[in-house]
User: What shape does this take?
Amino acid sequence: MRRFLTLLCCCLPLWSVAADVELQHANIDSDDLAAQQRGFKAFQMHCASCHSTHFQRYQRVADDLKLSADELQQYMFTDAKVNGLIESAMSEEEASRWFGMAPPDLTLVSRVRGDDWIYTFLNSFYRDDKRPFGVNNRLLPYTAMPHVLQSEQGLATANFVEKDGKMVIESLSAPQNGSMTADEYAAMTKDITAYLSYAADPVKAKREAIGWWVMGYLGLFFLLAWLLKKEYWKDVH
Ligand code: HEC
Assistant: This one.
């Protein structure tokens, strides 16, 4: 019991830090194949050097997202196999040496954290000269992840206010010196989120489509049953 209470006390401040940040809506549409394709490409270019998504295979992703063999090949690491699992370029020991921890596998992150969380995370980096890579993250304070999309987004600065004797972030300023506009960056991080959302639940779009057929079938069946009932009871009344 005591251990549980200690754990609870340790977790509460973390929870309250996280609760301060309102999540931004990614509005992911699980039918938007083009967004998932763009997201896969961006993920392989910017994220797969550190993060694996090794609960899925290249070929399955190519089939689901309708990527040609050539397109797929462009986004695979040279030693990867088409029917192999999607591993990251960096080994765990190497990553731990660089970041102090191994970057987590991201296949299921959308289920664990939610799409809005991922999207907000990618939009919450800000300049912090006290951190090893010169950046911090408003949603995941003291994160070990560098801002890998800094050359695209640019870098935001945090505006602090004092609240109950503590300095807290009130807002982030518009990022400076990125190669993308704010809209382009938002679109790219939405695409990456759409891809991770697909990765965590690859049959979602299919399941939803089947769901409509099932509803239609039930509706039709109900109508037939009702007509039949009317027919049978006609003579009784
Ligand atoms: C240079 C290596 C590196 C690259 C490239 C990288 N990350 Fe990370 N990422 C990390 C590390 C290290 C962590 C662990 C951070 C922590 O827990 O403090 C992390 C954590 C995360 C998390 C949080 C996972 C969780 O549940 O805690 C998400 C989401 C994430 N990364 C997404 C991405 C995306 C999307 C990209 C590509 C745009 C990317 N990362 C590129 C190193 C990297």
Summary: Confidence is low (pLDDT under 50) at residues 15-19. The two ends are 69 Å apart (CA to CA). Residues 46-47, 49-51, 99, 101, 103-104, 106, 109, 112-113, 118, 121-122, 140, 143-146, 148-149, 192 surround heme C (CB under 6 Å). The CA atoms of residues 103 and 169 lie 26 Å apart.
